[in-house]
Amino acid sequence: MAALGWLTPRRRSATARSVLAGEASAEAARKSSQETTEVSDKEPEFPVLGDEKAAAFFDLDNTVMQGAALFHFGRGLYKRKFFETRDLARFAWQQAWFRLAGVEDPEHMQDARDSALSIVKGHRVSELMSIGEEIYDEYMAERIWPGTRALAQAHLDAGQRVWLVTAAPVEIAQVIARRLGLTGALGTVAESVDGVYTGKLVGEPLHGPAKAEAVRALAAAEGLDLARCAAYSDSHNDIPMLSLVGHPYAINPDTKLRKHARKLDWRLRDYRTGRKAAKVGIPAAAGVGAVAGGTAAAIALHRRRR
Q1: Residue 154 and residue 249 in contact, taking contact as beta carbons nearer than 8 Å
Q2: What is the pTM of this model?
Q3: What is the separation of C-alpha 254 from the centre of its chain, rounded to a whole number of angstroms?
Q4: Which of 79, 147, 217, 224 is deepest in the core (most CB within 10 A)?
């Protein structure tokens, strides 16, 4: 067995140099651990758990939901014979433009709002709210982007309030917010007298700068610190709202918003293609949602082509 002696480990006492090497290695490991902790302290997870001064504001069309809420609402009203086929064709054209161009055309949006106002004129607010619940299940529920929904849920799980902010009628927005479990919604207000729509707006549509003003007013009323709040949108029209908060996110951005977001180093997320975020810091659940959202969009497109 003597020939196998070389296989047996030999016991050697530690030399001064080996002791020095071991101590140096241990010190390096300890220092690295401390530096990692310091980095973690400087970059806390977002959203911040229990921050009552923080909240999140989400645009609706093409941010939370695929397509325009007003169009889907119009489909539901058409099914219930609120208007004629020619009106539905106009709604469809407006929706097609929105989906293909990826931007809101002011004339199309105005035409859609005027059409909707003329359609609901004379109807009771309570009637439209009830119908809105049914229309959500029929046309809207399957068009919610899972990734954006996950972002909203992350804020809710952190104990923060979450609002939709949209140019869509506030009644529609409130239905969607309630069904998603959100805090509430800011939307365009249609005039009503004794609970009946008059066919007019109160002020103007909640669009562009008006959204920023609505968020500013709500934040003041709720005691929020906008520097600690987040906002999410797909449209360059919402840059005023996004610029108002400390944590702006570009979701499914149009060309102008994508360019602006990259210039200012805003976080990006595109659920139309499943592309990953341009910056880290978005909850992992939203990444999973991106894949689900892309799959849902593909299935929906396949169904329409059949």
Answers
A1: no
A2: 0.70
A3: 14
A4: 147
Looking at per-residue confidence, does 274 or 132 come out higher?
A: 132
Q: What is the pLDDT of residue 223?
A: 97
Query: Which tops the pLDDT comparison, 102 or 141?
Result: 141
Place of tokens 């700068």: 209
161-169 vs 267-269, strand pairing mode: unpaired
Q: Checking DSSP bridges between strand 55-58 and strand 161-169, what pairing results, if any?
A: parallel
What span, in angstroms and rounded, lies between the C-alpha atoms of 151 and 282? 8
- Both tokens of 267, joined, read 């976080």
3-state secondary structure of 9: coil
CB 69 within 8 A of CB 176: yes
Closest CA to 56 of 296, 267, 276, 262: 267
Tell whether omega for the bond before 47 is within 30 degrees of 0, i.e. cis. Answer: yes
H-type alpha helices, 43-169: 69-79, 85-101, 106-120, 125-135, 146-157
Average pLDDT, the chain: 77
* Between 209 and 74, residue with greater pLDDT: 209
83-116 residues labelled b (16+ CB within 10 A) or e (exposed): beeebbebbeebbebbeeebbbeeebbeebbebb
Active site residues: 59, 61
Exposure string over 62-78, b if 16+ CB within 10 A, otherwise e: bbbbbbbbbbbbbbbbb
- Specify whether the CB–CB gap between 55 and 160 falls below 8 A: yes
3-state secondary structure (DSSP) of residue 301: helix
- pLDDT surpassing 60 at residue 131: yes
Mapped onto helix, strand or coil, the DSSP state of residue 120 is: helix
Residue 142 pLDDT: 94
Alpha carbon distance 177, 58 (integer Å) = 10
